[in-house]
Amino acid sequence: SDQKSRQSIQQAIKGNEQGLMLVTGCMANNHKQSLMETPGIDYVVDNERKSSIYSIVEAHFRGEHPDPEGFDEDLFSYDSAYKTFHTRSLIKIQDGCDNFCTFCIIPTVRGRASSRPVKAILDNIREVIEHGFKEVVLTGVNIGRYDDNGVNFEQLVAQILELPGDFRVRISSIEPDGFTEHFFDLFQHEKLAPHLHLCLQSGSEATLLKMRRMYTAREFKMLVEKLRGRYPDFNLTTDIIVGFPGETDKDFQDSIQLAKDLEFSHIHTFKYSIRTGTRAERMDGHLMEKIKNQRSAIIRKISEANKVKYFECMIGKPQRMLVERVTADGVARGYGESYIPLRVKDKTLVRNQFVNVVPEKLYFGKETE
To answer: Is the Cβ–Cβ distance between 334 and 324 less than 8 Å?
Structure first.
């Protein structure tokens, strides 16, 4: 929410009084003037120019004071991934959204949906693989609606999976509409991680209608059941918003029931907060913060129970772990293809390598060992 973003900005300013403060993201588009007038913020960079952040910072430390608006707009251009120090590379394939959900400001601040050309995406992935990255994560605002001259998301992923190299592909947050059952066929490929973050938002039919979501709770449940029917150990995570305007006790109970039935291994829980300029801002029935807090705590508790249950069911099942870090005492940590956190005691392992493991037990309920 805007309030949380402002709090984070103020905390960053207080904790780094001698540092350079740059703000970007949706808030930079929606509240640019007020941010520019905020003491302690040096630069406000809108989404269309955030690929220029490196150049802005570099120019600043050369003694210049660059104007972010003087840089070209480019939603999809980023510095080469080998300049970073991670094992995975985020590949942005799409930006913007045409759905206009009533709680969301993204279509206003980021604009309508636009897709990055297939060739640019494939070239980008070839580059990061050549520089040693073992995992690419496909990101965007509404990636399921990807469309570049008739090439849809399923077809794009199929082309990515055929690229040479020892790497895996993970799909980031995706809406539960816009793809067909043929999409499920892609997960037979060994390079595609069997994990999806499917955005639910609510288990209530009435609330989903008010949110202007493009699916019903029944359709969502059927989609998950079909997916799990083919891949029983498939890892699903989701988002749930609690306290949406007019959300009744029954609406919330519907969300609770669906969260339990579908056994998401993790639920990103959000308390509804007003976004200026959205339709939900003008709706009746805004709930008290106390109720939102109570409902949020309930969903988080369900999420934790689901996580432990999923981790337990994966014990004894092989995983291909990507080592992300190794401690001085030889404990390697990383994630399996099912996006479960793993730890292995083996001093011979090094960062950014794949290793085949079989989880034996839960480690404090947070990862498998």
So the answer is: yes
